[in-house]
Amino acid sequence: MIFYNQNDIEIVQSSYNKLSSNNILLNSQFGIVIFQKAEYNLISINTFSNNNEAVRLKNVQYNTIKENVLINDTKYIEECCGAKNNNI
Question: In the chain, N or C terminus with fewer CB closer than 10 Å?
Fold first, then answer.
């Protein structure tokens, strides 16, 4: 269980990671943020609860976000700043 952070998990310029079966809650910014050209990451079977934003994808592509439980997050999943071709 990971909680009470500003940003919980950051994936930066790293590819082919798998994040599964985590409880991610009560983070003031993002549960998971993937940015700076991180590609082909899989985020699945996690529970996000009471985060400002569950997942943010920033300037990345070819990541997969699936089969997650989202509970009472202000925003669930956002692509920004050039993110494209992600499977959500």
Answer: N
